[in-house]
Amino acid sequence: MHLLAFLIRRLFQAIIVMLVISIIGFSIQSNLGDPLRELVGQSVSEAEREVLRDQMGLNDPFFTQFARFIGNAVQGDLGTSYFFKKPALEVILDKFPATFELVLAATIMIFTLSVPAGIYAALHPKSWGARLIMSASIVGISVPVFLTAIFLIAIFSVNLGWLPSFGRGDTVEMPWGWETGFLSLDGLSHLILPAISLASIMLPLFIRLIRAEMMETMRTEYVRFAWAKGLHSKRVWLTHAFRNTLLPVITVGGVQIGTLIAYTILTETVFQWPGMGFLFLEAINRVDTPLIIAYIIIVGLIFVVVNTIVDLIYTLVNPMMKLPGAAA
Amino acid sequence: MTRREFSARFFRDPGAIFAALLLLTLVMLAVLAPFIAPQNPYDPMQIDIMNSELPPYWEPGGEEQFVFGTDAQGRGVLSTVMYGMGISLMIGVGAVMVQAFLGITFGLLAGYYGGWIDSFLMRLADIQLSLSTLMVAIIALAIFQAAFGPGTYESLALYMLILVIGIAEWPQYARTVRANVLVEKKKEYVDAARLTGMPARRIMLRHILPNTMTPLLVISTIQVANAIVSEAALSFLGLGMPVNRPSLGSLIRSGFEFIFSGQWWITTIPAIVLVLLILSINLLGDWLRDTLNPKLYKGH
Lengths: 328, 300
Prior knowledge:
The complex is a heterodimer.
Chain A: H1 2-31, H2 35-40, H3 46-56, H4 62-74, H5 88-123, H6 128-142, H7 145-159, E1 172-173, E2 179-180, H8 185-218, H9 221-228, H10 233-271, H11 276-285, H12 289-317
Antiparallel strand pairs in A: 1-2
Helix pairs in contact in A: 1-12, 5-6, 5-8, 5-10, 5-12, 6-8, 7-8, 7-10, 8-10, 9-10, 10-11, 10-12, 11-12
Chain B: H1 3-12, H2 14-31, H3 33-36, H4 77-113, H5 115-130, H6 133-148, H7 150-168, H8 170-185, H9 188-195, H10 200-208, H11 213-236, H12 248-256, H13 265-292
Helix pairs in contact in B: 2-4, 2-13, 4-5, 4-7, 4-8, 4-11, 4-13, 5-8, 6-7, 9-10, 11-12, 11-13, 12-13
């Protein structure tokens, strides 16, 4: 019962967020640039323009236009990119695999490094290793992601010449049309620096979070009780303490996905990574309104979906927890 | 904690003293830039294109006149960095003032009145936080830039950055203020003030707000660092300060392409200064949090 109430409430919230985003998208469309000029150029007379405007529905009342915008958007029609002369959604989705693989690689790095580092720093807070990790993490937080990227390029591409500094390299096409860089050595070597840059900004945050939460749970009653039972220390640390550390980590992780997508714009710009963020910035410089709107809507959709999934995982990991939003 | 205890703790902590001295030096360099910078980078009369891309003076070909070398337009890197840091600090502090104003107002209202105002404002804060500051700022500035055209946008960029970063981060303040108001509201002095028939506005501003100042001071330091980072990121993307009035972020942006041809100083010097600035503020912020609010860190 709770789950159903939760899902309905979540869906309702998701619809509101998407509605707000589409209102923003629509107001961009109706105020930015002139779709007619993009279509026919300057050479058409004023009378013909007026006829065309009528045909395109640009003279319709506001709500008719907005309803049409929503109707088209729901059917996956977000307009045609002025620059690429292709449907904006298609252009964006073509770039999705590149961004997805970058985010995935960074997430794997963040998880595999922050969990052991965070646990270690929590279990031995006074040790040199822990102090080193904590000092490195405050320096890490203070270096903006685009600077990490620039320094990595300066060291590993320009000075040492070990790794490429831009692009995705060779990609392999999967049967379902997905271009992956994971399956070729060249693709992987192109992925290393951008993924490290993207991971670098979240890594210190998660190390500090895991450390703080782990130290908190180590003082709880049930961990003390587990010690009292004479359980092996590894078992207490991992099954009793760490498992309960995961909950806040998942919640923060969900919130940080938004930030991570924002940082892909920076990382992709520095490395000219052919993903959605780089495309978005190009679209801004070209005032390619349909593409700008398509990006905002897709990113909004990703936020909403990820946040809902995170909330669901949260309840699965901790069945004792009452679902957020479900009325008591 | 009394003022004496506070300063005693400060002078016993070499890390805090180091961070404070570093920050003080950087801020002085920025504030006094018009008087002590070797060059005024905004004055075309003082810039000579013949001096462009000179290396720092310790490298072969460097000139003593330009300690950290020059950029592609012949501006001394030391001077542009000093002026640029001033702009970064101005935007950082300005944006935090906007955040504090909005956040404190909404936080007081939500905490004091409760009910639907509270749920509405806090829901709004949740949604805004989940959308990420940088994302909101990038989209907002992208729209402004496309709407105004690059020319007009450049003259407004400073104010746009302050407003956008300010509006995007108000929930941080609102949540802290609200949480503290909920605690303070139950105390007797608030009841007493209410019984004297004092208007709600006065109770909130004169009685409750002063008691939430400690946590506000702690988050303000971190927020200034965050605002400076956001500004640098936005300027680096070309959505912030223009080249002719650069912040640290726009300086890094304009120097970026030169690292491939060996002119590392154009981008590295402003980058190091930016990192030092943020690091010193973050270190001070961490120290303040540990000192003023020890409940947060039970582990030590």
